[in-house]
Amino acid sequence: MGSVSKTEFPPIRACIFDMDGLLINTEDIYTDCTNILLEKVGRPPMLWSFKAKLMGVPGSSTGNTFHEWAQVPIPREQFNKDLKALQYEKFPKCRPLPGVEKLLLDLQAMHNINGDKVHVALASSSDKTNFACKSTSPDTKVIFSVFPQEQRVLGDDPRLKEGRGKPAPDIFLMALQTINDTLAEGEKPITPEECLVFEDSVPGLEAGRRAKMRAVWVPHPELAKIYAAQEKEVLAGRIGLVPIGDEWQLGELDDGWAVRLPSLENFPYSDYGMKSTL
């Protein structure tokens, strides 16, 4: 897998973050909103065994896979409209997940062991409207202020080709490009292997691996249970929830490019060649 072995990783120079379910608790909000409406129309709740198939797949929460399972007794368009309205009501109440604020603020004063500044970018499948709704509370404003405006790549970014959402690597490669485009004079362009992707979803982790970046998987506890027996395959990007070809982009089992963490609390900066300048 690539030219960099498990023991030869360069120090990290860029951290690229997913958003939903990683930085903020919106995955629980998505689930709650869906189940509120399902109960209202007399359908059973969505369990994690099914939700796991939707996480990280653009448009899946209101697409064919969901509706073939849900079998709601009202027009699909009406259900989707009601769901979006309920989400917009709940999103402004979302909050950062444990360890997120400290990690992002720490990274603002972080360099690697070679003295290189550590940069950050956001790479989320959420569109601009959803992002705006999720970033209105004082708590979320603090964490998103860490990401420069030009280093936020969202799902409806016109630079991303249609149909190339996660698990394709495009969004992470675009996020890296936004960082490289804004480097100070004298800073060398950052390579993919000098990047660390943070993800909670399985397709998102696969996208990071396909981008040839190192990765940290921080799944929801319920998602972690579902994939407990396949963790090595998840970390290698080899679950294949959304087949897209390009098998050469995938990792190998136990290759050391990705790890799972229970949360973003007490992040091990030194494992990635990073240290604070404070």
How would you describe this structure to a colleague?
The chain has 278 residues and is of the alpha/beta class. The chain is built from eleven helices and eight strands. It has two domains: 14-25 and 94-276, HAD superfamily/HAD-like (Rossmann fold), CATH 3.40.50.1000; 27-93. The chain has helices at 26-40, 48-51, 64-70, 76-90, 100-107, 128-134, 138-144, 170-180, 202-210, 221-226, 231-235, and strands spanning 14-17, 110-112, 119-123, 152-153, 195-199, 214-217, 258-260, 274-276. The strands form two sheets. A six-stranded parallel sheet has the order 4-3-1-5-6-7. A two-stranded antiparallel sheet has the order 2-8. Residues 1-5 have low confidence and may be disordered. One of its GO terms (molecular function) is phosphatase activity. It holds the Pfam family Hydrolase.
The biggest beta sheet is recorded as: 6 strands, parallel
Shape: globular
Q: What fraction strand?
A: 5-15%
Helix content: 25-40%
Report the radius of gyration as a whole number of Å.
19 Å
Specify the structural class: alpha/beta
Let me know the average pLDDT.
93
Can you tell me the CATH architecture of the largest domain? 3-Layer(aba) Sandwich
Under CATH, the topology of the largest domain can be stated as: Rossmann fold
CATH class of the largest domain: Alpha Beta
GO molecular function, one term: phosphatase activity
Protein name: HAD-like protein
